[in-house]
Amino acid sequence: MRTLTSALLLGAVMSTAALAADKRPPLPTYTQAYTPTTVDERGAWMEADEDERRLRESRSVIRDPALNAYVRSVLCRTVGEDRCKSVRIYIDEIPAFNATMSPNGTLTIWSGLLLRVRNEAELGSILGHEFGHFELRHSLMDFKNRRSGSDLMAWASILVRNSSNIRYDTIGGFYAFDRAQEREADMMGFQYLTRSRYPSSASADVWDHLMGEADATAIGRKGRAQQKYVAGFFATHPTNLARATYLRAASIEAHDVKPPVVDTHQAAMAKWLPVFLNDQIKLNDFGGSEYLLAYLAEGSGWTTPLLCARGDLYRERGNPRDLVSAAQFYQEAIGKGDALPEAYRGLGLALLRSQQVAEGQAALATYLRLKPAATDAALIATLIS
């Protein structure tokens, strides 16, 4: 009994010490069902409802139950079961990094974002950021700010002889207000992560990798890699460098060390990874796409889908040395034993363009044998004959 009492006292002391050491600001009190009350709110909700109706009918929305359930599970594990219940999630097949959340609880995620995050924690950091916008009512605040600013400019143009400076300062205030909201949502998303099973360092990791991709895109297009800390006058978001910096500092200060968890991101993405990679290759961004493929390979190795996508990337650029590399990537993917028939198609086309006619035709014949109902079967058959 004495041992048990001592253990309980020690546990209470440790718990009290942990609470005292917890410097995290408290999350706002969450209301599950919020009803708009003002004219501004009702207007914003009506617009959001109309946008959601269009989303529900959009052909670009991915309705795969498994993928949607995965994204919802990450959201719930990040912000909490109570907060995620009323959120409606839409995954839109757009090959760029973006997510938005409307004031009525509609969360839209672009497929390019799912492609670029490597684990649940990185996805959770973005979902938490968007939910932070929602919980803090940023859409409504932004609407009110712009309306009051527009009123100010209208009166200034009437009452003030030289009102250009007032208009300039007011417009600058719009963008500064947007940047402040983005930073606030960043820190709210960070707070969600610190209270979740995920490491809060993932918040900064996302922006580090996006900077790397942006630099690779610029260099691939004969430009210069250039990351700035201070956002421009008309910027609506802090720069990636600024976000990575203050989120990394917050993570270090939080001492957020957690045990590793089973990560299901790769399994959830397996079915859709070839589709999203194909969308990425079509962007004609060799530098950025090459960086993205190598970045994804750091976590999972050069898997069959990544090798096939790399083959497509080099074949599309089409320099003689690129065609040689593309054929090697396809052959390596085929050698793994789980390649889709399209790997033989890409190999055949690369070999034909490299003047290896017999080998190319043989690869294309294998493609048709594996996928006789392919939409391009007639065209491929002409290349063989």
Overview of this structure, please?
The structure is a single chain. The longest helix has 31 residues, at 164-194. This protein has helices at residues 2-21, 39-57, 65-79, 81-84, 111-116, 120-135, 138-159, 164-194, 202-220, 240-254, 265-269, 273-281, 286-300, 304-317, 320-335, 342-353, 357-370, 377-384, and strands at 61-62, 88-92, 99-101, 106-110. Strand 3 (99-101) and strand 4 form a beta hairpin. Helix content is 68%, strand content 4%. It is elongated, with a radius of gyration of 26 Å. Helix 9 packs antiparallel against helix 10 (240-254) and helix 9 (202-220) packs antiparallel against helix 13 (286-300). It has 2 domains: 34-254, no CATH class; 271-384, Alpha Horseshoe (Serine Threonine Protein Phosphatase 5, Tetratricopeptide repeat), CATH 1.25.40.10. A 4-stranded mixed β-sheet has the order 1-2-4-3, with helices on both faces. By secondary structure, the protein is mostly helical. It contains 18 helices and 4 strands.
> What percent of residues adopt helix (DSSP H or I)?
55-70%
Radius of gyration: 26 Å
- Spans of at least 5 consecutive residues whose pLDDT stays below 50 are 1-21, 149-161, 165-174
Structurally, the number of domains stands at 2
Number of helices: 18
What is the string of SSEs from the N terminus onward?
HHEHHEEEHHHHHHHHHHHHHH
Structural class: mainly alpha
Overall mean pLDDT stands at 84
Give the overall shape, derived from the CA principal axes: elongated
Strand order of the largest sheet: 1-2-4-3
Quote the beta fraction. under 5%
